[in-house]
UniProtKB/TrEMBL annotation:
This is 3,7-dimethylxanthine N-methyltransferase. PANTHER family: S-ADENOSYL-L-METHIONINE:CARBOXYL METHYLTRANSFERASE FAMILY PROTEIN (PTHR31009). It comes from Acorus calamus. One of its GO terms (molecular function) is methyltransferase activity. Pfam families: Methyltransf_7 (PF03492). It comes from the Eukaryota.
Length: 79
């Protein structure tokens, strides 16, 4: 099974540092734990504000947000 992960942040933030430093460590850890015979996975940077739409309808199967809720002053009421 393939795994696709989207990382979101504002466009002016530095995605390059993320991909140059953190992701190589993730690949190394995966290979040390699972060897080279693991399912393929892909990591993508998606620039944009979470106040707007970032993905097409019905394109995501699972979503987790670890930091966005503290930025909201109230619930939007949208489902």
């Amino acid at each position: 099974m393939e795994f696709l992960c989207f990382l979101n942040d504002l466009p002016q933030n530095d995605f390059n540092t993320l991909f140059k430093t953190i992701l190589p460590e993730c690949y190394e850890k995966l290979e040390s734990d699972k060897g080279r015979d693991h399912s393929p996975y892909f990591i993508v940077g998606v620039p944009g504000s979470f106040y707007g739409r970032l993905f097409p309808n019905r394109s995501l199967h699972f979503v987790i947000s670890l930091t966005c809720l503290h930025w909201l002053s109230q619930a939007t009421g949208e489902a």
